[in-house]
Amino acid sequence: MLRYQTIPVTPFQQNCSLVWCDATREAAVIDPGGDLDAVLAEVERRGLDLRQIWLTHAHIDHAGGAGELAGRLGLPIIGPHPGDQFWIDALPQQAVMFGFAPARPFAPSRWLHDGDTVTVGQCTLQVRHCPGHTPGHVVFYSPQAKRAFVGDVLFAGSIGRTDFPGGDYDQLIASITQRLWPMGDDTVFIPGHGPESTFGRERRSNPYVGGT
Questions:
Q1: What is the pLDDT of residues 91-101, one digit of tens each?
Q2: DSSP codes, the chain
């Protein structure tokens, strides 16, 4: 069974998520944007065996700590999609622009594409390419747990920004309606910021995609 714990990190209160297999205690961390000591303290507190770093996209608050964490623990960085290469290249400038600690450059161990899977312990999650917020944004979905880790594609009551370089509003709406909604109204999603919600609730009441 897949378990998870969300840890808000960085001044942007980005939802970094630990995900693990409760049978093996093997874990991955999704979007370690910063505050790595707090993340690793939770890993230790829960007795987890951290094996991988998964990235939804390469904005500084999601990916800023990935290079340091990978170097510190010898972990592979999985994702995002190659469309975010330019955001990875720009991490040092992003750190300066937004007042973050210096971001260590990295090369993903594995790029992700739509239809790929990632595995932690005995749990396998599906990968969906959901561009619009960034060109290379991906989402991690567990059909068994009915959970989706959607980064900055969709929020409770809102959607991701599309005014950054590479953003595309129409593409984002298509990603939500064509890639997220088919996961089912009862699927709970963990956004990159703010509280969890369900796809059904957002389909009914979200001012940007309600009624789609």
A1: 999 999 999 99
A2: -EEEEEEEETTTTEEEEEEEETTT-EEEEE---S-HHHHHHHHHHTT-EEEEEE-S---HHHHTTHHHHHHHHTPPEE---GGGHHHHHTHHHHHHHHTPPPPPP---SB---TT-EEEETTEEEEEEE--SSSTT-EEEEETTTTEEEEETSEETTEE----STT--HHHHHHHIIIIIGGG-TT-EEEESBS--EEHHHHHHH-TTTTT-
Q: Rg of the Cα trace of the chain?
A: 16
Type of residue numbered 164: F
Handedness of CA 54, 58, 60, 62 (dihedral sign): negative
Q: Are 65 and 37 in contact (CB under 8 A)?
A: no
d(CA 126, CA 140): 6
Please write the tens of the pLDDT for every residue from 103-140: 998 999 999 999 999 999 999 999 999 999 999 999 99
Record the pTM.
0.98
- CA-nearest of 16, 116, 25 to 66 is 16
Q: Which two tokens stand for residue 27?
A: 């874990």
Mutual orientation of helices 66-73 and 36-45 as an angle, nearest 10°? 50
